[in-house]
Design brief:
globular, mainly alpha
Length: about 290
């Protein structure tokens, strides 16, 4: 005998019909509605979970590997920090910014003032005059001229002044060579190396030896030689134009000449403090007198 047909839920068809004929408020009617709603809820929850997983897989954060997943493997080690010299200095000091700015202004101004750096420059016709000024401030003519005057002098006062001038010139050569060897600043790129006489340290630019010698000789002459006012003004102009010619010829930057003037000014103070005289250095004067 065939078995009675059953509903989808597994109950006999008759029982389903009887349950459907019951009142809406009966427990049987409410139970069917509850099962239907729970079935829809379970399907909706599964769909939401699937959509969430798809969105997580499509996320750019997940693709970069930084989205934490429960099934992910052990976290990768963080990359080692960059060395200190490879890091970008995003917060430089005020002193560093000021020095870089001054250096940029110095290079720009020196190039603008280098109007006699070559024959094709804007003031190239004045280059021979600038080179004549260069020779007038060179160390070798000053040393040879001081030695010649010292050999021809016949007074103790004149020998004393010339002896200290020789001491000042030798001190200037020593200090300038020492500082140039330590700093090693190259001469400007637009410089044409055709100087009078050069040594190994003359390829460096800081400080300007002509500027130090000009300031040193200027103070020495104004303090130990009796000159008329026009001659004193002429000496001051010579020292100033000599320093300016170093920039116009392209030999030095502006800061090289400025520091050279300051160094020459201080060198005279050193010479004046260690002033040589027959009282504190009698051996030098006796030896020179015998010669």
């Amino acid at each position: 005998m065939p078995s009675p047909r059953r509903s989808v839920e597994g109950r006999p068809l008759g029982a389903s019909a009887s349950s459907s004929s019951s009142s809406p408020g009966s427990p049987a009617h409410g139970g069917g509605r509850f099962e239907f709603q729970s079935l829809l809820g379970s399907r909706g929850a599964g769909a939401d979970l699937t959509c969430a997983r798809l969105r997580a897989s499509e996320s750019p954060v997940h693709r970069r590997g930084s989205f934490p997943l429960a099934a992910a493997g052990p976290a990768q080690a963080a990359p080692p920090p960059l060395p200190e010299e490879d890091r970008m200095d995003l917060n430089p000091s005020f002193l560093g910014i000021a020095l870089r700015s001054l250096l940029a202004i110095d290079l720009w101004l020196s190039k603008k003032l280098g109007v006699c750096a070559g024959e094709s420059s804007s003031w190239g016709s004045a280059r021979p005059l600038m080179k004549l000024l260069e020779i007038s401030g060179h160390g070798i003519p000053w040393l040879l001229g001081t030695l010649y005057c010292l050999s021809r002098s016949d007074s103790w006062a004149g020998r004393e002044v010339l002896m200290n001038l020789l001491f000042a010139l030798l001190l200037d050569l020593l200090l300038v060579a020492l500082i140039k060897g330590l700093v090693r600043r190259r001469r400007p790129a637009h410089n044409q190396m055709d100087m009078f006489v050069t040594l190994s340290v003359d390829k460096y630019s800081f400080p300007s030896g002509h500027a130090t010698r000009a300031a040193l000789v200027l103070r020495f002459i104004l303090n130990h030689l009796v000159l008329a006012i026009p001659l004193r003004v002429l000496v001051v102009l010579w020292a100033f134009v000599l320093g300016l010619s170093r920039v116009m010829l392209g030999r030095h930057n502006v800061t090289d000449v400025a520091f050279g003037f300051f160094l020459g000014y201080m060198q005279y103070s050193i010479v004046d403090y260690f002033w040589l005289s027959p009282n504190n250095a009698p051996v030098l004067f006796v030896l020179w007198t015998q010669q």
